[in-house]
Fold:
Amino acid sequence: MHLDVFRRELADHRRSLIGCAVGAVLLGSMYIFFYPTIKSSGAGVEQLLNAMPKGFRDAFIGAGVDYLSPSGYLGTELFSIIVPALLLVMGVLAGGRALAGEEQNGTIDLLLSTPIRRARLTVEKAGGVLLPLFVVAAAIWVVIAVIGPSQGLSLSLGRLAVAVLAVALLGAGFGMLAFLVSSATGSAGLGGGSAAALAVAMYALNIFGSLVPALTGFADAVSPFHWDGGSGALANGVAWSGLLLLIACPIVLLGLSIAAYERRDLTA
Amino acid sequence: MASSPAIVLEGLTKDYGVKRALDGVDLELRSGEIFGYLGSNGAGKTTTIRCLLGLIRPTAGRATVLGLDIEDDSIEVRRRTGYLPGDLRLYPRLTARQLLDYLGRLRGGVPVARVEELARRLECDLGMRCGAMSHGNRQKVGIIQALMHDPAVLILDEPTATLDPLMQRIVHDLIREARDRGTTVFVSSHDLPEVARLCDRAGILRQGRIVAVQDVSELAQQGRHMLTIEFLEPVEPEVFERIPGVSQVTASDQTLTITASGDLDAVVKAAARFRVHALRSAEVDLDEVFRDYYRSGAADAP
Structure:
């Protein structure tokens, strides 16, 4: 047994992985090539942004971040919504489907009639969910690092690496939540749906946290969308505490998934 | 190994919520026999089998396969067992060869020559995508994966239900060959004639309980026929009721319906004394046989 399930999982979904990676590269390049135009209309954009209430501005651009700087621009355009959303959708769909899909398709009987431990199956399936997230995150890093400087987008590649890692971990966390719920219940839809709902709620909480001072402390502590630094990740970096939480979540959820799956009656 | 039983079930019980699917099943399979597990749909055959494979956990009781506990040693049980699920589903996008290669790898590798030989015997095109296969062809792939590692125990859930008679015979041959090599075969079926043809012994499961375990030769004698005879003249039903083995005679006009077990010779000879227009014979369906066992409670375990 040499990671056969893991490799099968990647092979079965290579098309969607390639599609997501290509999409991320195209999306990234598009924003990179827009940058010179946006920057040349600088004064107008600044005026528009300064007209916004400070809370809104901070929520979408990051506190104290200059929108027209390379890290402010990429942080706002890519790291506030688009890239997290892409990796979240990838993680949640794959996480819901990976193990529960075998049950719903009725192939689990065949798979688990071979001498493979359920814990091993769970870990390899989870690996198949997680690796693509990091591949797509890496593709985003590469496209910004390679094309960015030609369009005036020079920034710390180390900080960029931490930012894409944090967003990949965000997708991993919600992906593993979908994985946990679906492997505990046998329903891919329930797993994906509950993780997606929680992600939306946490995103909203993060926005409200920036707008409502009374909520700020609570939202920052609870919402993973704060942990990853949000749109300020490139300008301000990602806090160690947030990064550790982002790393811990998928690991804990995977551990719970293994325990939940181990003794369950599998649906025929 | 030859003398010790290959599969032992002791009070195996499975509840689904409030519904009891298996109710204290005791069973012993001898090493190297083909054992038929007979029961109508919903009797608990698949539940028993999925317990043995560790896919579901028994509520109470225990079972061993080759002396290995099905819960504590599930990995080892599965390593030595070939399994054909009752509701077989394959990966539609894989070809049969890719699927068998995948399952073979999970078993630590199986000889390619063995897979090719089985495919040839079953006339199975390994290059075809599983999703494009007919039901019968998918079933062949399922049979190949169950047999390809030459397991010591074969657990087959309704293996030939969807195969044409010719393929049924080939599968029966493969099962017998496995038995002749020493493999113990546990095969579920709702088809009494099939069990009679294939198996050495059979157990009858009804509503989660074993109601009979018998040598198949004995079971066949229990097989009953229902004869419908249309006469061209009035006949006295009493003539037939007196014949030994006849359990029931119903008359309407000049047509008699006779339920009889064992030899039909006396019935046919009695009928021959009258002018017969038509004669039809049907095996009494399995459920009748079950009901008989259920009523009499003839659970003469080995």
In short: Residues 118-147 of chain A form the longest helix (30 residues). The mean pLDDT of chain A is 91. The interface with chain B takes residues 1-2, 4-5, 8, 12, 105-117, 263, 265-266, 268 of chain A (CB under 8 Å). The two ends of chain A are 25 Å apart (CA to CA).
